[in-house]
Every structure is written in structure tokens, then in C-alpha cells.
Design a protein that fits this description.
about 750 residues, mainly beta, about 10% helix, globular
Length: about 750
């Protein structure tokens, strides 16, 4: 047992091993004003049109997502006519179509557009000063595929991205930001609509795109017809910037908005007025998100407040003879079907030009990134700062369980700065009661030395959490009125205490508790006795402790490195956050205190084994190890045995834990007392609705909103149970033990 003092809330996070790497490609200066400043947002693709050149590019950013995401489009579908572009729902093909679908880029709210519009954008400084932004203009002023919607039919007005000035958050190239808010829907899908939103710092740039040579110099959907007269639409995007500069949106006269980096320390708030609440699970590129859905009279105001995150880009290229055999085999087996090209593909790899750019949420991409590990140097090619959120697509939701699939409205939100992430929402493991989410990123930043630190935020609607976890059965905490019939039982609290000790025991090997078999680890008697003799205190002072989550990053070598984690239950949402972890682990496991694992030390003679499981039991021939402290003068003997006994002339002693500021002492004596200036370390259970915290420190106190719980010992014949609650009461048939 490691006796470090920790506060604990009923949530754990385990991060077992991952291998993910990337190579740095040189970054060139962007074209335009102030091109002495090179930002990763202007990182050009290194995939040149060179025969024999092969590579991989893994990127997830607004710049890389494609211009079709910033263009409004409305189209009708019918058996007789095929797919046709529309400009409204009352005229043309959409008026009497069998079905129609739309992507509406929303405009700022105005006298003419009062619903399905952007209500406002604000910046929030590092000192928490909020400054509203000012709408500037539309980009472009009128889109080629703009359409008029219908309030009665729930279809928004399809417009273009908007340019805003955020004077409170200037970046290196000014104070302009592009805001892209989109809503997607389909007549056959009823009122269900998806949602996406992005805020991007930009600077306007006059490009060298020439319609005479480069075709369309703006992003547009175009109409085609087959030989039978049936229509088909397709997107035609601008490629003039490829490999030179990175445009977020295009405007008139070949002007474009270049993506720029967010200023450090700022957060942003976006408020959108919608005709109905979005449906599904949201995924975001942001940190510490606070997303609110306020529905009044059938209209929903969505408010998103969050800080941007830096997301790595992985890229590696090489001429065919220089590539390892396993990478060559991948290209032979998978191209041209799974490969892009800039100069054409050939059966002769020395003449072929091919690169892989798979979806960052595809399961196969994890294996593909690992394949490149030994060739590309485990570092990011670029780190782009991003602020965006979107509803997951139907294809991404295939892995979601019925608690999520069958729900209405927004069920949860995952945001992460990891390059690769699980397809769909976290998967629920019914055995371990954990939400599991897979991530992968380069281990290092561009310099190859600085570790890239991960962020992960999970927000789950409380009714979805209830559906997944069954809180009403497993975590029967007092209600806000502290009714005596609702109580929190002591065995659950004991599980949390044991889970803390198990999670933070650095001498114990962590396990993947999705396996039914317990983890058994051989340890020496000296190690066990050394563990029992040590004590460290993490708290820097004696102030009220803010509860932390039991969380570790477990690497392939089974070494632990703690992540900074928090959890909260407020406004109908469970909010979990993990930050500052490194990417050497593939799966984030969030367990909201249900059946946490424990570690039991077992002994047989001089042989010790540590068993880690939800309900650990000693192997046959082993008994539970008991620690006894024995003292003679100034000599302390720590005895670990099934039935420990003190040596002759040694007296049985008691150990107490004493703390002062950042220091801690374990005092062992027949009648121990804390040294001068030190206080006795004790624990209290604090409860607020369904949240339970065990606060351990000198003079422990419950944080704001939490109340100190009381524990009763109740008996019924030979049975004994403990009940912990604000106002505890013994179960029916039990009496209070005096």
C-alpha cells in the first residue's frame, strides 16, 4: 500500500499504452502581409507532384476539412429527375420534390433573419474580461449556392460565413475572425438537424488564383446531367492555394481569408439562435467547453464557451526506394483505392505518386499511424490552434449504444486535442462500467523534445449517464432535500478509498479491468515493507481541498504518470476533464465510481502477491497480508504477515499520519502524537446530490455546496452495515448500533 494522501471523487481514468508518431516537414512562410511570421496554420502540404514520392498526411483542421463545409447548398432528389440544385423551397425543383436536403451556413441575426442565426460572438481575456465582437461582412457577400429557407418547414436561410472583428482578442495579423455556423437537415429525416460551428482568426489576402487558368476561384456546388437527363451535383473547390498558403474561405475577386493562430490565453463564446435543438453527440476541438442549450417556446439558444486547443498534424514523405518494406507493402496492397495523388498512380512504384490521408476517426488510421512510427520521428509536423464543434455523422454513430442512439437532443460532448480519436461517442463497457475512448497523437511537438500534452473533456447529459450507469441503483446519494430514505451506503465509500490506494500505488502494476481475470503481481517482502514505511502529502497547504479524480497514464512499460483531472455534476450534465497527459496510451476509460477496482496484498511465507480486481481474493494457499508496527526505543519494525507478531522486547505500536503544508510525517509509537506544528490527518465524506467526495487532509472541510456526511453503524442479527448520508437512517429491519 502506498500511503500518499489524496482527495478523491467517484471517478477514475486509466490510459493504457499507445504508439503514435510523426515526422516534421519544413514549414515555409505564407504568402501575403507580414510573411516574416510563420504560423502552423499556414503549414503547406509537403506532398509534391513528384513521380516516386509517397507519403502520409494526417490532419484535422478547418483549413483541411474542405471548402464544401463553408458553402450553403439546397438540393432536391426525385426518382425521375435525380439530384437538382435549388434556390428556395417554393420555386424550382424543391417545391414538389420527393425529398430535399440542405446545408445552411447561418448569417448573423438581423431584422430580416430572426431565427437560425448567429446572435453574437465574444472574446474572453485571460483575466476573464468579456468583449463582444462586431459583425463586419459576409464572405463572400453573396454565395453562388445561397438559398431561401422556410421558418414553417424548419429550413434556415442558407448564406455564407461571416467576418467579425474581436477587438478584445487581437492576434498577430489583426482582429478579424471568420465564424462558420452550419445546420444540416433533410425532409425525410423530419426535424432532426445536425450542427457545426467554427471560429477562426484570419487575415484577408489577395490570391493569385486566375479563372482563366485555375477555373473557379471560389468554392461552389455545380450541376451536371447524365445522358438520360438526370441531374447530379458535385462540389468544385479552389486548389490554387495547395502547397502555398491555407485559405479558410474564399471571397469575391479571388480574395481569401488566411487561417491564423489564436492569441494565447483567450477563450471565446458563440451564441446561436436555432429553430430546434441539435440532435446527437457532439465532437469538438476545444478545451474546457461549457455548452448550454436553452429552449423556450420551441426555440433553442445554443451558447458555446471554450478555449481553443492546438491539434497536431502528422506527415511523412519519402521516395519509394527510401521507404521501409512494411510501408511499401501497404502502398502495394492499398493503392490506388485508398490513396490520393498529385501526378497520377502507376503500377511501377518508381513512377507512381501516392499519399494516404485517411479520416482521423477511422479505426484503420490508428494502425496506419503506428506503421509509420519507425520511419517518422515521433513529432508533429504542425500544431494548429482550433476552436470548433460539430455533430457526429450517422456513420460515426454506428458504435453508439442504445442509451445514446435512442435519445433525443444532444446527448453528450467529447472534445480533445488528439489527432486521432474514436469513431463515434465513447463506447460503454458493461463489465467495467466505463466509457472508453481511443486517442492517438504524436508523442512530441515539432522540436522532437517537448512532449505534446493531451486534453480530453467529456460532458454527458445526466439522464444518459443514468441510462448507462444506473445511478439510482448504484449511487443512492441524498437528494437536495436530504430525505432520510435516500442514503449513501458505506461499502461504496470504502470502495472509493480502496480505489484511490489501488490507483496511486506505484509499486503495483495497473491492469485493464475489462478483463475478468484479476491481475496478480509478485512483490518482495522488502518492497511491501518499504511501501508501508513511506508517506508523502501532495497538498501544498491546509486550505480546503478541491477533489481530484483518481487518474493515471499507464504506459507500455507499466509506469504511471498522473494526469490532471476534474469532474463535476451541474446543470444536468456530468463534466469530466483530463489534461496534461502524454500520448503513450490509446484508451481513455472514464468510470463514474461504479465498481472501482481494488488491490489486495496476499502472503504465503515470504512470498507476496498483489491481486488487483473489482473484488480481489487471495490465491489458494495465500492469506491477506496484515501490517503491524513494532517498536523498541527508537527502532521501528514493520512486520507484514498473515498473522504478524512483534519480536521479543518489541511493543505493538500505532501509526498516525500528520501533515503540515506540503510535508507529511508518519508517526509510529505506542501512544503516537503529531510533532509540534503538525496536525492529525483525517478524512470526511462530503455529499452533494449524486456527487461524493472523500476529503483527506489536516482539518478536512467540505467544499462549497457539499455537506459533511454522517456514518451510522446498523445491525440486524449478526449482520452489520454502515450507512453514510447527510441524515443517515438504518435500512428497514436494522437498528442503530450504540
Amino acid at each position: 500500500m502506498n500511503s500518499r494522501l489524496r482527495t478523491f471523487i467517484a471517478v477514475s481514468l486509466a490510459l493504457p499504452a499507445l504508439l503514435a508518431s510523426t515526422a516534421v516537414i519544413g514549414v515555409t512562410s505564407s504568402v501575403g502581409a507580414a510573411d516574416a511570421v510563420v504560423e502552423d496554420e499556414q503549414w503547406p502540404s509537403p506532398m509534391a507532384a513528384t513521380p516516386g514520392l509517397h507519403g502520409i498526411i494526417l490532419e484535422d483542421s478547418v483549413q483541411a476539412s474542405g471548402g464544401d463545409n463553408s458553402v450553403s447548398v439546397l438540393s432536391a432528389t426525385s426518382v425521375s429527375s435525380g439530384e437538382l440544385l435549388c434556390t428556395s423551397l417554393v420555386n424550382g425543383p424543391c417545391a414538389n420534390a420527393d425529398d430535399y436536403s440542405y446545408q445552411a451556413i447561418l448569417a448573423p441575426c438581423s431584422a430580416t433573419i430572426t431565427i437560425d442565426c448567429i446572435e453574437g460572438v465574444s472574446s474572453i481575456s485571460p483575466t476573464q474580461v468579456s468583449v463582444p465582437g462586431t459583425y463586419k461582412e459576409m464572405l463572400p457577400k453573396k454565395g453562388d449556392n445561397e438559398f431561401d429557407g422556410s421558418v414553417e418547414k424548419g429550413v434556415p436561410m442558407g448564406r455564407t460565413p461571416s467576418l467579425w472583428t474581436l477587438s478584445g482578442a487581437p492576434h498577430a495579423f489583426g482582429s478579424d475572425y471568420v465564424v462558420i455556423v452550419g445546420v444540416k437537415g433533410q425532409l425525410s429525416m423530419g426535424k432532426a438537424r445536425s450542427f457545426k460551428a467554427s471560429i477562426v482568426p484570419v487575415s484577408m489576402f489577395q490570391s493569385d488564383c486566375d479563372p482563366r487558368f485555375d477555373g473557379y476561384c471560389n468554392d461552389i456546388y455545380r450541376q451536371q446531367y447524365d445522358a438520360n437527363g438526370k441531374g447530379k451535383i458535385f462540389f468544385s473547390g479552389v486548389a490554387a492555394d495547395y502547397g502555398k498558403y491555407r485559405c479558410v474561405v474564399w471571397a469575391e475577386n479571388a480574395k481569401c481569408a488566411l487561417g491564423r493562430a489564436f492569441p494565447v490565453g483567450f477563450s471565446y463564446e458563440l451564441k446561436v439562435r436555432l429553430a430546434s435543438e441539435p440532435v446527437g453527440w457532439l465532437h469538438g476541438r476545444m478545451q474546457n467547453p461549457n455548452i448550454d442549450f436553452a429552449t423556450i417556446d420551441g426555440k433553442t439558444t445554443v451558447t458555446v464557451t471554450a478555449a481553443p486547443v492546438r491539434v497536431p498534424t502528422a506527415a511523412g514523405i519519402g521516395m519509394w526506394p527510401d521507404l521501409p518494406a512494411d510501408i511499401q507493402k501497404w502502398f502495394i496492397d492499398n493503392c490506388p483505392a485508398a490513396c490520393g495523388t498529385r501526378a497520377g498512380q502507376s503500377s511501377d512504384p518508381l513512377q507512381s505518386n501516392a499519399f494516404s490521408g485517411p479520416r482521423v476517426y477511422s479505426e484503420a488510421t490508428f494502425s496506419e499511424l503506428k506503421l509509420w512510427t519507425n520511419y517518422i520521428k515521433d513529432k508533429a509536423a504542425a500544431l494548429t490552434s482550433q476552436w470548433r464543434v460539430r455533430t457526429l455523422s450517422n456513420s460515426e454513430m454506428l458504435s453508439a449504444g442504445p442509451c445514446i442512439k435512442d435519445a433525443t437532443g444532444v446527448t453528450g460532448i467529447v472534445t480533445t486535442n488528439s489527432l486521432l480519436y474514436s469513431e463515434g461517442p465513447p463506447t460503454f463497457n458493461t463489465e467495467t462500467k466505463t466509457l472508453n475512448y481511443k486517442v492517438a497523437s504524436p508523442h512530441y511537438e515539432k522540436d522532437g523534445k517537448t512532449e505534446f500534452k493531451g486534453t480530453y473533456n467529456l460532458t454527458v447529459r445526466d439522464d444518459i449517464a443514468e441510462c448507462l450507469y444506473g445511478f439510482s441503483k448504484t449511487l443512492a446519494a441524498p437528494s437536495t432535500v436530504y430525505a432520510e430514505e435516500t442514503e449513501y451506503t458505506e461499502p461504496d465509500v470504502e470502495q472509493y478509498v480502496n480505489a484511490v490506494e489501488a490507483t496511486y500505488d506505484e509499486a503495483a502494476t495497473e491492469a485493464d479491468f475489462s478483463e475478468e481475470e484479476p491481475l496478480v503481481e509478485e512483490v518482495t517482502l522488502e518492497e511491501a515493507e518499504a511501501d508501508e514505511s513511506t508517506l508523502t502529502l501532495d497538498e501544498s497547504d491546509d486550505e480546503v481541498v478541491v477533489a481530484r479524480v483518481a487518474a493515471d497514464v499507464v504506459t507500455e512499460l507499466q509506469k504511471t504518470a498522473a494526469a490532471n483531472t476534474t469532474i463535476d455534476l451541474s446543470d444536468g450534465w456530468f463534466k469530466f476533464a483530463a489534461t496534461n497527459f502524454t500520448f503513450s496510451a490509446p484508451t481513455l476509460k472514464v468510470a463514474l465510481g461504479v465498481n472501482p477496482a481494488k488491490t489486495l496484498t496476499c502472503i504465503a511465507g515470504a512470498s507476496l502477491k498483489k491481486v488487483t480486481a473489482v473484488s480481489p481474493k487471495c490465491p489458494t494457499g495465500y492469506a491477506k497480508a496484515v501490517t503491524k508496527y513494532c517498536i523498541k526505543g527508537k527502532t521501528v519494525d514493520v512486520v507484514v504477515a498473515a498473522s504478524p507478531r512483534c519480536l521479543k522486547k518489541f511493543s505493538a505500536a500505532t501509526a498516525i499520519e500528520c501533515g503540515r503544508g506540503a510535508s507529511a510525517k508518519r508517526v509510529i509509537a505506542v501512544k503516537p502524537k503529531c510533532p509540534k506544528g503538525y496536525g492529525l490527518v483525517t478524512s470526511v465524506v462530503c455529499i452533494k446530490n449524486t456527487s461524493v467526495r472523500l476529503v483527506t487532509m489536516v482539518r478536512p472541510q467540505c467544499a462549497s455546496g457539499f455537506a459533511k456526511a454522517v456514518t451510522l453503524t446498523c445491525t440486524k442479527g449478526k449482520r452489520t452495515t454502515k450507512v453514510t448520508a447527510i441524515k443517515p437512517a438504518c435500512p428497514k429491519g436494522f437498528t442503530r448500533k450504540k
